[in-house]
Structures are given as structure tokens and as C-alpha cells.
Amino acid sequence: MLESLLAVGGLMLLRDSVEWEGRSLLKALVKKSALRGEQVHVLGCEVSEEEFREGFDSNINSRLVYHDLFRDPLSWSKPGKALPGGPLEALRALDKRTVSGPATIALDSLSWLLHHLPCPTLCQTLHALSRQDSCPGDTPPGEQVRVLGLLHEELHGPGPLGALSSLAQTEVTLSGMMGQASAQILCRRPRQRPTHQTQWFSILPDFSLELQAEPPLESQPRSDPHTPSVDPTTHLTFNLHLSKKEREAKDSLTLPFQFSSEKQQALLRPGLGQATSHIFYEPDAYDDLDQEDPDDDLDV
Amino acid sequence: MAVAGTSGTGTRSTGSMVAAASTNNVTSFQRRGPRASGADSGCSRLVSIAGTRRSVRNGQLLVSTGLPALDQFLGGGLAVGTVLLIEEDKYNIYSPLLFNYFLAEGIVSGHALLVASAKEDPADILQKLPAPLIDHSYKKECDEDICGHKMESDIKMKIAWRYQLFPKMEGRPVLSSGFGHDYDISKRIPQELIETSKWHGFFLPEKISSTFNVESCSLTSGYMKLLQFIQNIIYEEGFDGSNPQKKQKNILRIGIQNLGSPLWGDDICCAENCDASHSLTKFLYILRALLRTSLSACIITVPTHLIQNKAVIARVTNLSDTVVGLESFIGSEKETNPLYKDYHGLIHIRQIPRLNNLIYDISDVKDLAFKLKKKLFTIEVRENFYV
């Protein structure tokens, strides 16, 4: 499933935490896009360019277009040199730069941008980035712009996290167990139910992605989630169950208003060509069917 | 007036009575003034606009929300001049459906539309509206549905067999022609219907200028532009009666999507103590003033699950007229709960307005659930087996 993530356009959030870092997954996805021949733009804010490019071989590095906000975020050096106007202008420049063809934009991190920009502004800019401004109408899925954003979820409150997740098409939350990293992938298509999936993976030193099966669970010090279930029907002073004989007796009991099926159907569907009314007589169990007139005994 | 002399006595045969009533009034009282022409027997001197009807309780002018079941629970329909607020479900799957039903009903009834969104282009929204169903095909589907139910219930009902044929839903309201249509979600609305309709779109990324100035007033600039846009449309098209209209009066249906989300520039979803916390409430107040003075009805969807401050949610609810909340079961533990297995979510009708009235017009039923079938969005009373 992680491979098919790159087929979907839009915003993809990579939520990582202190225990499970997400930059290596980001670099793995960047490498995958670069190997597919797409344009890749990276906006680096948290680590230096050398550190980001480390581990990539030269053909990938030649495809990466790096926009550096780490060295001089406030543009104190000679103005006009690189990315004036701060992070907002940098994002807008990215929006205008992707001219044609599929492209991937990696934001190194959204957390840094959230701290430096007001959240609504960032959301609006991200939305504009991941939309198709150049080609109105339906673009084929391979041609879309993908925005990968790394988000450190422990740095933000529920507000910005909720706002960004409502914008994202895909949300990958990193977690893991016993040294094995896993990604919980939540995929939101526009009019369909969101799909949830967990994928175990590992990243090799050259930043290629290796998918793995779920690790065996034996040596887990898991707290027992099931308390022994108590059957509430034991130790009762009344009986809630029916034995087989009792059930048969119950089924064969004739209920007082249970009529034969033709009478039921006739009562349910009245008025079909009935000029006169019908009388249905079904003798009860206690009815006496003796035709004699009981008044004959009287000597009157 | 040959009829006048002998009327009033009850000893006439029914045949002649009917004949007399059809030609003249049965009573000897004559109406002075211009006689209302046409077949509207109930609204003699009131102008009848297509797609609306008068409420039976207090004479309020109502429009349909597009879902006859929802109309029934809202007291007959949505009153003209009021706001219907839909609290979105968590993954925003079902609230666009209600939004689309409202707009589709507007197109089918011939009303003017105003669609505002910060996320999607209004032209795209209009392309995805559901197609209206012709009456007999829908009834056929309903009958099949009921027959399907009957086959199972024949076996089940041993004691209560007289109730076998009752439909599972509350009685479907009788639809007079022109009010409330049925739609098929699996099909798109035909293109010619959209082209013949009059619609105005407001797409925020196009309208807002690229320079982000600090706003001096407390309304976010996106909201301000939207209010100006709505006011212009109402004034120019004459929905508020300011320009004496020569053409027929019509209703303006306004639909605003995802109001309050960060895409509108509002940060109530992002922080608990935000700077522009009164922006949305001011917007709603001014919007309601615009609606009350014009022939329009509005539907708004708000992602209240994202709003961090509960006080803001309460204020937004109080400032709207009708509030319907959607709670979907996706991702929550209710999805696997056997109590809810037939449904996709719950509908909470949180508020109903009291317009020119002393009492609320609510139904007694509080436990409503919805289900999204392949072609329909149905609202049902949740059958509670534990009562």
C-alpha cells in the first residue's frame, strides 16, 4: 500500500513522533518519486541541505531541486539573494514553479512552517499547492502534484492537527513495536469512506523502502485486554433459559388470536371484491360442536 | 343567482351539490374584490412561488430541503429567510450529500442558486448534484423495498401479524406536486438542467487578493467579501423587493460549504483562544439579517468537530435557526455495535426555530438515524428494541 500512496495526488501528512522519526520515510518517498522521473522540489527548514542530500546517490541528487530555508530563514544576509519574503513567499514560489507534468513537493517540515506562519494561511497555501491550478478539469492521476509534509505531532495541539488532517488526502502515522516501524495509513477519497491500513516497513541505508509482514506477537508483555467474562445468568433465583422440551411446548402453543393463514391473509388484504362480508369461524379448543340445541332439555 | 335561494338547506342530493359547488360558491356570500384566478384554492391572495408552500401551522413560507424525510422532521420544510446549519460528520462524507440535495432541489424547482466554497469550485459542485427521479420509478423502487420487507416479515410476525404490511419508516409524507422531489445519488444531474438554472458562484481563492493584508475590522476578509457578494446578488436580482420586479418572484438558495474551516481564513478550528474568535459569529449575524430581509434560504455546513472552543460552538448554534448535526459511525466504536448495525450514522436535530410562534414545531421523535443506500439517503426512526 505504501507504493500506491504515491499514485494519489494531494496532500500527504507524515506524522511522526520522538520514538519513530519520519524523515527517513520522507526521504524514501522522495527517492521513489525521483526514480520515477518526476520533478521533486524540497523545501528544507529543519536540517541543512547537506544533511538532507546525504544518502542519496548522484542521479537522485541531480533531480532534487532544493529550496533552503534553514541557513537563513529571516533573510538577514544580502536581500534578494535567496528566497526573500520568508517561508510564505517560498511556498508561493513553489506553487508557481511547477509548470507541467507530475511533481512532488516535500516540505521538510510542516511543524516549522506552522510555528512561523498562522495556521489558516498555511492551510490556504497548502490547499492552493495541492490543487490543479494550471489544468482545470480532471487531470489524469499521474499528472497531479503531490505534497508530502512532515509533521511532528507532539509539537502541536489538537487544533492545528485536526485542521491539517481535514485537508489531507492521506495521513500516515508512524508508530511501531520492538524496533519495527509501522505506518497507519488513512486514505480519504473525496466522496468515499476513508480506508485504514497498517503496513510494517523498514528503511534501508540507501533510503529504499522495504515492506514487511507483521512481526510475530509472542514476546509481547501485553496486558490482558479481556477480563474473564462473567456470565450474568448464573446464580440467579429465576430461570432465564428454556430447555428443549419447554421450547417445543412453547412453539406448539396456540395463541388466542392466531388465526389460520387464509383468515390472516383475508384480514390483511381487505376489500378485494367483497360485496358481502365473510364470516370466518374457527372452532376454539373449548368450543362445543354439538349441534343439538341445549334448550331442548328445558321443559318449558 | 338561482343557487342562492335554495342553498343552505342540507337536503339536496350529493350530485347536485357537487355541481353547484363547481360552478358557483355554495353560500350566498360573495367575495368582494378581485377574484383569485388559478387553482390555488388555499392561497387566494398570496403570491405563490414555485417550489414553496405555506406551513399548515403558522402560514410560514417553506421551501424543501431536498429530502422529504428531513422536511418532515423539520416541521414541513425550511422557512424562507432562515439558516439551516449542518454540523459536519468527522470525515465529511455525508454533509456534502445534504448540501447537494438542497442545491439540486433549488435547480429542479427553478430557484436561483448562490454557491460559496473555499475548497471546491462551485461549477464542480454543481456538476456533482444528484439527478431527480421521475415519480413512478421511485414509487416502483419503494414498492419493491416494501415487498422485500414483507417476505421476511411474513415469517417473523407470529403474534403481531396484523402489522406485517406496515412500512418500516414513519409514513412518507404526501408530496404535493412541486414541493419536495426525490433524487438518485448514483446519477448526476443532467447538464441542461444546470444550464437553464440561474446560479452564482463564489470561490474564495479566486476572489481573495494575493497580498495578505492585516484586517483592521474583526471580520476575516474572506467573510467580508462573501457578505458583500451575497448582498450584491440580493440587491441586483431583486430578492429583497428593493427593485420593483417585473418578473416573477423567486427564491434565492444560498449554500456555503465548510464555513469556519481554516480555508476561509478563520482560525477557530486551530486554536482555543484565537484572535478572530468573533469573526464567524459576526458573519452569521449579518448573514441572518440579510436573509430576513429577502426571499432567500441558506444552508451552511460547519466542521464543528474541529472547533476547539465549546463556547464558540454554542454561539454558532444560537445564531442559526435550524441546526442538524450528523454523527457518522465510521472509525468510532459504534461501527461494530450491534445496536447500530443497520445504519451509517445518527442525525441529531439540535434546534428548530420559533418563527412568529409561541411553540416549537418539532416532532416527538428524537432518535433518528440515517443510512446511505446506493441511490438514496434515508432517514429513519431508529428502532429501539430495548424500550
TrEMBL record, chain A:
One GO biological process term: tRNA wobble uridine modification
Localization: Cytoplasm; Nucleus
Pathway the protein acts in: tRNA modification; 5-methoxycarbonylmethyl-2-thiouridine-tRNA biosynthesis
Acidic residues bias locations: 284-300
Source domain of life: Eukaryota
InterPro entries, alphabetized: Elp5, P-loop_NTPase
GO terms under cellular component: cytosol; elongator holoenzyme complex; nucleus
This protein's record includes keyword tRNA processing: yes
Keywords: Cytoplasm, Nucleus, tRNA processing
Region (Disordered), start-end ranges: 215-234, 279-300
GO MF terms, alphabetically ordered: tRNA binding
The keyword Membrane is annotated on this UniProt entry: no
PANTHER family named among the record's database cross-references: ELONGATOR COMPLEX PROTEIN 5
Family the UniProt entry places it in: Belongs to the ELP5 family.
Name this protein carries in UniProt: Elongator complex protein 5
Organism: Ovis aries (Sheep)
UniProtKB/TrEMBL annotation, chain B:
Protein name per its UniProtKB record: Elongator acetyltransferase complex subunit 4
Domain of life: Eukaryota
